[in-house]
Amino acid sequence: MSQNSSKPNRGTLGVNTTLTTPALPAIVSEWAALIPLVIHLASRRDDHRIAGEAALMGGLSVGLFPRLGTLDGISRLLYGGPNFLDRASAMGDLGSVVWDVNWGSTFPCANGAASAMIRSIIQRSKKPTIGIPEHVQPDRPLFQGRVQTSDVHGTEKRGDSQLNKALRSGNPYGPTGFRRYQTLHVFKFSRETVKLPWRHRVLFLPPLWLTGAASFIQTGVAVVLVLSGIYGTAAVILTVAISQLTCHFLQLQRPPLYLNNNETHDACMLAATHENSSTWWLYIGDRGVVDSLLNKPMISLPPSSSKRLSYWFRIAHVIQLLSMTYVAAQKGWDGICMLILIIAAYLCHWPYRDHHIGQLWLDQEGITAETKSFRFGGRTQMIGAIHAFSGTKVTTWMDAIIAPSPRRQAWLRRLSGIDTSQEVNDLEPSDRSWVVLHSDLAMEATRVLQREMNGLASTGEVSSWGSAPQPAGPGNVVSRVSADKGKGGDQVSTRKA
């Protein structure tokens, strides 16, 4: 038996060291050396996380032992700048599409990682999901105006007959009752002045003295490891210490319009992974917060020094790669120490989990976020409720979700309270059924949204988040949801213009 196998604590090289280390069982030495390469590798999601942390923290940070590939990601961020942020924020299933309900525009989320971190902290409250009614009231008038239900021969049209039976049976989804449920999470943001606790400031971006002290301790530990022949782990610790100091002196900048509202109204933006999603997020409230989080860049890189510093992080990535592969070949106490370093890195990273970073950002900027979740029986009902709740006149934002058509136009006009009797009568029976059913379901959902959001909204009107209510022309019928506290709930008032 060779000397190396009899004394696995010295590793494959079997070199003599200044400080001696105790013997190790061979199986422990072999196993511990492989674990770092198996569990501590970065993925494409790490770019997503780097972009999110940089956007929220306004700076870059390196953990005690970053995943292999993280330092290379920081290098690509510094070298690529906005191009890296665009790709990382809209990466695969981690990206999202945003629909501006007030303005009608559609665009990819500019800060997908940052918004995902904010959502994770807001939704940790575990509030129950509010069910939206899936049936309309039986025996209620189907139209505010006169609608033709008979053809020229006096026979009730087949589509209308089926619709009336469905409505009065309490099962508008047919005999099977199948539906694709849609979950809508509503986030309401507001700004207030909050004094950030000192521990939050230290965790958010540590001061120079704390970073310097940590680097000094890491250098001392690396020296001890070198004297013990644990060269791979020592190289990683020294590389990380230098990278942490480099990140501290590399200060990212906030854009001039960061968190500023350049409009006179609040935000109402809908987000989802794609147009056919079953989970949606509606952002309302302070437009400066919502627009910065979804539509505008939150950081800008200093053009002079960022590309030069990117070369260091690329070199640091190579050093880490060589060190981890060296440890896998060397084994012995080098593998054990690297495994201990990974465990310590996970423990130190605990305060910097996604939802903790999101909470630190909210506290740092004095932002209050509240949420409620709703479950809809169908996507059309949800889109109609959002449109009525916002009070906007713009409809182009929903074109990719519900294709423009005559029946959609009649449906939207009916949601606005306009008498669409003649317009609906000109439709096919199936389209007529669709308009009646989904407009009634959407208004039922609007009443629930208005009632539940009264505690979060600044006003009791449906149109509080969007433009002014629709003007009533001659002969139009205006239906509006208002909070009638004296009668114990929301009421639907109808009046002739």
Structure, explained:
This protein is α+β, with helices and mostly antiparallel strands and 497 residues long. Helix 2 crosses helix 13 (333-348). The termini are far apart. Helix content is 47%, strand content 12%. The model is unreliable at 1-6, 138-160 and 457-497 (pLDDT under 50). The strands form two sheets. A seven-stranded mixed β-sheet has the order 2-1-5-6-4-7-3, sandwiched between helices. Strands 8-9 form a two-stranded antiparallel sheet. Strand 8 and strand 9 form a beta hairpin.
Q: What is the count of β-strands?
A: 9
State the separation between the terminal residues, measured CA to CA.
100 Å
Which secondary-structure class do the elements indicate? alpha+beta
In terms of DSSP E residues, the strand content is: 5-15%
**DSSP summary: helix tally:** 18
* Poorly predicted sequence stretches spanning 5 or more consecutive residues: 1-6, 138-160, 457-497
Question: What is the overall silhouette?
Answer: elongated
What series of H and E elements makes up the topology? HHHHHEEHEHEHHHEEHHHHEHHHHEE
- Overall mean pLDDT score? 75
Cross-sheet strand order for the largest sheet: 2-1-5-6-4-7-3
| Percent helix range | 40-55%
Task: Tell me the Rg in angstroms.
Answer: 30 Å
Biggest sheet descriptor: 7 strands, mixed
